[in-house]
Amino acid sequence: MLSPGDVVSYLEMCAPFGVNLQRGMNYRIRDGESLILMSQRSGAPYQDRVEQDGRIIIYEGHDLPRTSSGPNPKTVDQPEFQPNGKPTQNGLFAEAARKFKDGIAAPERVRVFEKIRNGIWAYNGVFELIDSWREKSSSRNVFKFKLQLVGDVPFSGGSRSVYLEHDRVIPTHIKLEVWKRDKGCCVRCGSSKNLHFDHIIPYSLGGSSKATENIQLLCAKHNLEKHDAIQ
To answer: In whole angstroms, what is the distance from residue 223 CA to residue 231 CA?
Structure first.
């Protein structure tokens, strides 16, 4: 079972959903589960951002698919509907946000994975979709979606939520810096498998999530051995 802070390969990310994830927005792809893939890396195709130390994500919608005879997707409005009239992923997520704002549905719960490097992702946990809108970006309109941290919900389909204190969330820029510093390996044994972003001084003992010197990469074995010890 994945926990927030776990680092996974592409195949490990796909496994709980039983599908190969081919797009960043995935509305209720399996058993009512929604999922988004985000990135704040240099050169990322969309302008995703994180606010309130990781508690809020502002996620940009997706472009018209690129075709050999069509326009450059970056020059046209992001679509809400397909040519056949069915909603795009933008449309599905926007409708879910509207229903929540209108008080006729609970907020859509969305699992969030964040790209650390090619083929490597960090699981950020479960967020609730609480708002959506369109805004101007250069000469076109794009969708924006606001998601608020819940914590984690078991992949087995259980309904129990684990609410995470937002100060415990490791910000994106810290994860990227730590990954680069630790060279994508466990600092104890050098393994590149089953990695996790670990607090050196545990959060429960006052350790910060917002200082690179207090975050390290550990493999599952050494993360479990450590527990709340300071090493």
So the answer is: 11
